[in-house]
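Blinded run. Sample ID left blank on purpose so nobody reads anything into the name before looking at the predicted structure. Input follows.
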Amino acid sequence: MQKRRFLCVLAVIFMTVVAAAAPRATTKPAAKTETQYFAIFIDGKKVGHSKRTRQVSDGKVTTSETKVFTISRGAVAITARLSYTDIETTDGKPIGFKSVQDIGIMAMAIEGAVTPAGKVNVTITTGQSVQKRVIDWPEGALMSEGLRILAKKKGLTEGTKYTAKIFTSLTLKAEDEERLVGPTKNVDLLGRVVPLTEVKTTIKGVTATNYVDRNFHDQKVVLPAMGMTLEIVACSRVFALSKNDVADFFARFLLSPPQPLKNVASARSITYTLEPIAQPGKPADKAKLHFPATDNQTVRNLKTGTVVVTVCPVKAEVGAAFPYKGKDKTALSALKATRFIQCDDKKIKSLARQAVGDTKDTLKAARKIEAFVRKYINKKDLSVGYASAVEVAASRQGDCSEHAVLAAALCRAVGIPAQVVTGVAYVESFGGRKGVFGPHAWNRVLIGGKWVGFDAALNGYDAGHIMLTTGDGNPDEFFGIISTVGCFRIAKVAIQGE
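Blinded prediction complete.
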C-alpha cells in the first residue's frame, strides 16, 4: 500500500501553494541578506520548519528556502527535505534556479538557466543519472522577486484581486495563482497576536489563506487539505528548529466499506457509492469530489455531492504489437522520459529487455514487466519517501509507489505507453485493520487502443481499485487528490458477478 504519496502531496503544497513574499529582516536595516524562520504544523502538531532568505548582490536577487518535515507511520518515520533557490534581476526578471528534492533514496536536483532567447537549459540529476532538456520559459511567469514586486504594486487594499503566473522549479511549470486581498484582523502567531492582512491564494482549485504584515512579509499560512489543516507560522529560529511532534496521519486515510467484501479479485465489476464528509471550514454538502471516467471506471455525479463509481476492468487485446506506432497524443506522452520515469536510462533499458525477453505481444510484455517488478523489488517496506525509477532500479526497495514508477519506466523503455495511477485499493488487511481501502499506486498501459490496469505491488489489477489521478508520477500531479483523499466515505458497495 502507498503511504507516502501523502508526503509528496505535502511537498507540492509547500513548494507551490505557499508562495513566498519578502522575508523579514532579522539583521540591521543596512544588511543585504534577510532571513525568516517558520514552523510547520499539521492539525496542530509541529512536523517541521522552514528557513527563507533573500540576498541582494551585484544587481541580482537570490531568494532561497528550505523546508524540512517528518511524517510517521507507526515505527517508520520519513523526513522530507525540499529546497529551492531563485535568481533574478532586481526588477524581477528570471536568471536561473535550483531545487533539491530529498524525499526518496537519493536526492533529485533540478537546475536551470534562462537564456535571453526565452529558453531554459535544465539539468536533472538523480544519483548517477543525469537528464538534460531545453524548455520554453513560460511567458509572463514570475519567480520569488517578481512576485514580491507585483504584490507590492497591487497593494493590500481589501477587495483587490489579481492573477500571477508563478514558476516553480520543483515542477518546471508555471501555474496561474489567483490572489484576493481580504480584511485586516488580529492573528495569533504562537501566542503573539498581531494585526495582519488576509490574502487568499488559489492554484488549481487549492486555496490557502495567507496573513501578511504591512511590509508584505508572510507571517502565517493556513490550508485545509485532505481532511487536515496545514499551517506555516513565522517564529524564532530556536522554536523553528525545536523538536517536532510524532505525527502519524496515515491511518485516517484507510477506508472501511460498510460490509466485508468477498471475491473482489474475481468480480466482473464493483459499484461504489461515495459520499463527501465535512472538512475544516467546509461542510459536507459544499464539498466536491473528483473521480475521472476512464476505460476502467464510469462516474456518475449526483446533485447531493455523492459520486457513484463503477469499476469494470477492461479486457486487454491479445496480439497487439509493440513498440507503439500510433499518433494519439496521450499515448505518445506516455512514452517519454520524465523526472521520475527515466525510461532513457541505461539500467532501465537493460532491465526492460531482461523483463520482456523476445515477446512481441504488448499484453504478454506488460504482464512480464508486472511480474518482473514484483520480484525485482525484494525489500518491500515503508521506509522510502518517494523514489524515481532510477532510484528503485538501484535500491530494489520500496512500496507501491516505487513498483509503479519502475513498471512504467520499463514499459516506456520498450515502447509501451504506460502511466502511474493514484487512487485507493482494497486489501484484506493493512495497518492492523481487516478489509480496508487505502491510498495506492498502480499502472495503466495502452494495449490495442484501451488503457488496461496493472498492479505490480498487489496481486494484479482488479475492480477493487478506484482511480483518482494518472500521469507521469511527478509530484505536481498529486494536486488531483488534495480535495478527494480523506474527504469521502464509502457508503455502499455492490459487487457484480465473476
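Unblinding after everyone has recorded impressions. The domain at 254-498 is CATH 3.10.620.30 (C8orf32 fold).
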